[in-house]
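Tutorial, part two.
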Amino acid sequence: MEIFDAELWAIGLALDVTFEKRETLQIHGVKTVAVFSDSQAAIQRTAHLEPGPGQRLARQIKRRAWNLLAHGIASKIHRVPGHSGIPGNEEA
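Running the prediction step on this input gives:
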């Protein structure tokens, strides 16, 4: 797996964990979750499904996001600069 693919896989994994925890999130009134990545290329890849590197993973991410939305939870993917001093960034 290339670094690019690993970044996409991690975004998908974050959405999987969110889906697994959806009932708890709903109980607490969560309507939107944020996924953070320091890979601008991976984030940009999730925005389209055209053929090319990462297409399969981008499609999986879209399906996961749609499944969450069907349960009333929107997802947003944001870029966070790596090693930027943001609390929790190193642990994540």
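The chain has a mean pLDDT of 91. In part three we will examine how such features are distributed along the chain.
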